[in-house]
Amino acid sequence: MKRENYNFICGNYRKHVGEEKCTPHSIREVALDEIVFEEINKALYYARNNTKEFTDYISKKTSSQYRRELNARTAELSKAEKRIVELKSLFKRLYEDNVLGRISDEQYRMLSVDYNDEQKELEASIPELQKEIDTLKNECTNVQKFLDVVKKYVCVQELTPEVLRTFISKIVVHEREKKHSQTSPQQIDIYFRYIGTFALPSEINQPEEKTHDERRTA
């Protein structure tokens, strides 16, 4: 495969291929590189040239964003734990029904396999959810830490592993608006360290637009 054709494919699809739990949506690596490269430089520009407005905007936005994420993960964890308790009760009832002859051995086998698979999947997800919750609780928004990092860079000239580790905590690639389409819009959420996602507020001055080549050589 040529370098320009390298791509990332949904891990959930790979894990559950054939189960219709997700679609094989993907994004080319070179396209994602370009997006991340431009977003990092955009954040650098505004943090340097509109420091007060940048600080006020990020502080207000990210506090509510982290609360929403923490509440969502906590609710998901609670739902998983509750479902595991339900599954244990269902399995016990299923066993009793089989012993009493209310359901056949084949029905018992099929249902018990389904219940066991679901329980294993939920039990595997709980440590990950708890880890995410702990991370969110410990990762308070700190604009000053981001600004301290910004002082070390005028702009990013190349997207290296060091630059990614310095600025980015995670990237979420969503399904395209039209599934299986190669041309419909696709949402990309880029989470910066210390400040979360960054979207340019309208009141902050915008930099001059540069061509693709100019951005790479700035």
Which geometry do the CA atoms define?
elongated
- The radius of gyration computed from the alpha-carbon positions, rounded to a whole number of angstroms, is 23 Å
Report on the biggest sheet.
3 strands, antiparallel
Mean pLDDT metric: 82
Query: Which series of helices and strands comes N to C?
Result: EHEHHHHHEEEH
* Helix/strand class: mainly alpha
> Total number of helical segments?
7
Number of strands: 5
The largest beta-sheet arranges its strands as 3-4-5
Cα(first) to Cα(last) distance is 31 Å
Fraction in beta strands: 5-15%
Quaternary class:
single chain
Pick out the low-confidence regions.
Answer: 209-218
Helix content, binned percent: 55-70%
Explain the layout of strands and helices.
Blueprint: E1 7-9, H1 11-15, E2 26-28, H2 29-49, H3 51-99, H4 105-138, H5 143-150, H6 161-167, E3 168-176, E4 186-192, E5 196-197, H7 212-217
Antiparallel strand pairs: 1-2, 3-4, 4-5
Helix pairs in contact: 2-3, 3-4
